[in-house]
Amino acid sequence: MNNTGRKFVLYGSILVISLAAPWMLPAYQTQLAFLWMMVLFALTWDLVGGQMGYTSFGNIVFFGVGMYVTAVIQRNLHFDIEEYVHVAGAVDMLTPGQYLAGLFLGLGASTIASVIVAAILGACILAMGMRGQYFGICTLGLGVAAGELASGWEYIGAGSGMVTPVFPDGLGERGVFFYYIFFLLAGILFLTLRWLYSGRFGLAIKAIRDDEDKAEAMGIHTTRYKIIAWCICAFFLSLAGGAAGHLIGFIDPTEVAFAGATFGVWMILMAILGGKGTLWGPVIGAVIFHFTQELFWTYLFGWQRVALGGLIIAVVVFFPQGIMGWLRDRWPERFGYWVEESSGSDPFGDAKP
Amino acid sequence: MMNENKKKQAGSKDDISDYDFDSSDMVLSVDEVAYEAERLIAETPTMERLSELVGKDPLLTIEGLRAGYGKMEILHEFDLQVGKEQSLCIIGPNGAGKSTVLHSIYGFTNIMGGSITMEGNDIIRLSPNEKLSRAGIAYILQDNSVFPDMTVEENMLMGGFLMKQPSKAQEATEKVLNKYPLLNERRKQKASVLSGGERRLLEISRALIMEPDVLLVDEPSIGLEPRFIKMVFEILYDLQNTEGKTIIMVEQNAKKGLEFADIGYVLVSGQLAMAGSGDELLENPEVGRLFLGGGRE
Amino acid sequence: MSGHLLEVKDVCKKFGGVVANDNISLSIPEGSIVGLIGPNGSGKTTLFNSIVGYHPIDKGSIHFKGREISNMRVPEIARQGMLRTFQQTHIYGKMTCVQNMQISVSQTNEGFGTMFSKFPPEVMEKADRLLAFVGLYTKRRLMAGDLSFGQQKLLEFAMALMSEPKLLLLDEPTAGINPTLINGMIDRLKRSNADLGITLFVIEHNMRVIMNLAEHIYCLAHGQLLTHGPADKIQYDQKVIDAYLGAK
Fold first, then answer.
1. Any idea where the domains of chain A sit in the sequence?
2. CA-based nearest distance B166→chain C, Å
3. For the segment A103-160, what is each residue's pLDDT rounded down to a tens digit?
4. Which of A214, A37, B210, A290 is nearest to C85 (CA)?
5. Which of B186, B235, B187, B246 is nearest to B211 (CA)?
6. What residue in C sits closest to A196 (Cα-Cα)?
7. C148 and B31 in contact by Cβ < 8 A?
């Protein structure tokens, strides 16, 4: 089978299995929905961290912004704000139409909000020339700061967080609904990145990663590329955040929305585990990580955090090239790195004066 | 087959003709050179021939070496012989694997086959540390390998890092600094302020701390102005003839390298294409045309 | 003197207590090939860094195509059409040789629209030709970081030619390159200058290269401009012989 044929089979089978999954494993619908969310986490992190070399510890900011904005729109559209009960809220059920309207309007607003945030942060951090570990620490601070800000803001529930509306009847199963939303998001993200990486954009961000001084010396608009990459990252993370807030049902500022110590770290680990800087690496890393994590929670309960910590150390210390990196080192020819046989003469015949 | 000293006396006043002002009209494409070199590889020198060039018992012998990085094999069935207190220069096109030979001797490559022996003992299994501490082989890297934020003296002490006692390293440092007043003057200065030639001198001196028998020198004259090139070769001459070191070097300034060395090897695409005494190769018009940019016209 | 492509006037640059460039003035006419020679540590690379905007200068002015550029940043100056190669080779290590060449396409006319586009086939063809010239055609699919030092230097050279700048500053382009190939490089540089109109400003220690290449040569020593003149005269200039070519 030739290359195109192989690709067709690969994508086709993934599509078929993915579409059928929630029906085949009904007990795991929510976990599978989160699997696609993890894929999205890993892919978005990899765009800025793996492909472009800017290790960010604060991408969770965009996730949280998305989550809150969608929830706020949903709430404000349908409820009287003063009457809204925070935690043990007994609120009226929404109709499917109202729910969907709130959700999709909210998602739309989320993307706008998060891209604006990314652009502002980019102008403050990236345009100022912050690189490497300074960038990393700065973004770490951002994640923490966002959580603290949200914890103190009454309008969005402060420390108690917010509750999103109960999933209405008439829209099918909750697990199935959100499964397809996350699958769709992850799928669109994957295809978008595939398109981006195949052209000028992909090479430019890799050049920034490999040697930013050289890229600048060649005249590449490095600041533009950096900010746009972060904005794309923010866009998709905010959509995931908005949907996640509605799937989980409650939004805690530090544990759920701006969950830097969990989601924020995991997105980095998944990309590294699968092989950062590659298209499929983050996907593979996310799948393996998610399954491993579920196993730890089920069978090592009480020790699951220790086990997860151990996994993080093992990957970063012993396996930093990740699975795709390891495969590429082992079989370079299959990934396109090979030496052609010399034809024995000047192939273009223009070396002579 | 070994040559007598043919180098200029150290300290002579050189005239400008010492510098290469020849024309650059001989233009051959990389592929043409590779193609013609294939012919030479077909007549690759035998082990006997290499032995002849040494003329006595070899100190270091490489036989049938296959080595590279990761899964890529760079050297294919490479042989080498060099005798005690001799100097050998490897020349050849870029990417031929010249540095890989030095890397392999020292232990930085993936060795896929063949043997490297020193006075009959296999040294492949020694780690780079052990190459220096036990086999007496020192490696002088290609460029810019000083520790920039350390002083000259501290850099020299680092050369003796593997010694059992720091005091021994201090002693050895004093000895070497006394020999090179140019460095001694700057011993308390940070290595980053040294000019190119002084830095190279530091790199060489640092390698002498452990009193090695063999020096692997990767491109001694690269990036140096003409006077420092002269200085470096004078130092190497002194190290070979006065202190009895054996020197294996890679040099892209092929004319200077072959003028200096007793034995010359031409490496092309990971294989030994030619071997001869330094002078022999310099006089050879093929070598001149293909590898020296025109040779002696 | 006015109206030259690059005009450097009284440029000064200090690092800590050390004066690296002391009142350097020079001028590069469009379409010429100019050499810059001098001992190690005389300030040649620092001067290049000053010109391309790698660091701000303490005093003086630099005009490129008639515009003052001493307060512009590196990418801006590069997009004006001035590129440089580095003494310590800089290439993109985790991309293939072909990709290195593709991303080296001139950035002068890059806008938001072209950011997301693919490279046209002419780019690929040009890249292949230049790679063949430096002997990297069969290795074009390897990661640039896996090449030998000399091959990386050749790749950087090819990348510079790929972008066809107005003015190209080359910092010791032939150091570590095989002498036979150096001849080819000299030839290729001359052709780029004659056919494509690329003005060249070259730092070199290899006398054979600079004498065969440059029309006019500037010589630095101890951070100052020692002298300058036509190539065939400079090698006999006593000041140059004393400071640089002669014995210590």
1. 29-264
2. 33
3. 999 999 999 999 999 999 999 999 888 998 999 999 999 999 999 999 998 888 888 8
4. A214
5. B246
6. C116
7. no
